[in-house]
């Protein structure tokens, strides 16, 4: 299934097209002056942004996605640079060694310098939770090496929850906001996201140090199927269910309750999977029936750097809120 684009993304694409047209030769003096976009946005591949969408914004430097390395056996691959999905799935199925790491500070330094050379005045850099990775620390080290001001944000989340913060930053940047305003808006949107997920086995999370050995053993021995969440930047158990079917059904209930507790028409959903697309599609369809007024969920594979820890068969649902101007209010502009 092709990734579905929520209204905010469509707004961004249309605005980007207008910005490009306004700076083309032959523009008449009667047209309104173009918005000056001063702030670039940098993130990492844990943000789970759809590849086709990324291309639109990477093309003119407004967005850079730094790949996070994944080691399968003795080979190191870069998310987005190498096609590692099938290789990772085979390695997980076979129980082979799979590890992840943070990008190097040098990779972020290159991204920041590229923004500077394209004429941007500042960068807002949004990254996977520091409770799960040292990526934000690498970004801060790089920020100290460059002359362009860089605002580094620990998203305290993962996947499209992080991606929604990135998208919100691009909305504010496209509106001509300063780096400080872009940061504030992104952080406000990030604070409104939640990640709920189910994994058939806790073993990969245990191997990666994301949960304790005791919790993994308990889940295996008692056939408990846990529902987990990302809370304050860390993975936490939410509920324990006795079967996979009941776990997925309970996941739907939790998500629907969250969506229906938010302002009507504001919620956005993303469904992640790895190796179980058909199951994710069915989950998204059922959520569409339960979450009244919510646009269809975006469905996408979990990035390799996250799938390496979650394992095969994961189902994750991200709940966030719209960042489309008109649907929500951007912060008031600060005076020059």
Automatic annotation (TrEMBL):
Pfam families: DegV
Keyword vocabulary terms for this entry: Lipid-binding
Domain of life: Bacteria
Entry keyword annotation includes rRNA-binding: no
InterPro entries assigned to the protein according to its UniProt record, in alphabetical order: DegV, DegV_C, DegV_domain_contain
Record carries keyword Acyltransferase: no
PANTHER family referenced in this protein's UniProt entry, alphabetically: DEGV DOMAIN-CONTAINING PROTEIN DR_1986-RELATED, FATTY ACID-BINDING PROTEIN TM_1468
Name listed for the protein in its UniProt record: DegV family protein
Organism (species): Arthrobacter gyeryongensis
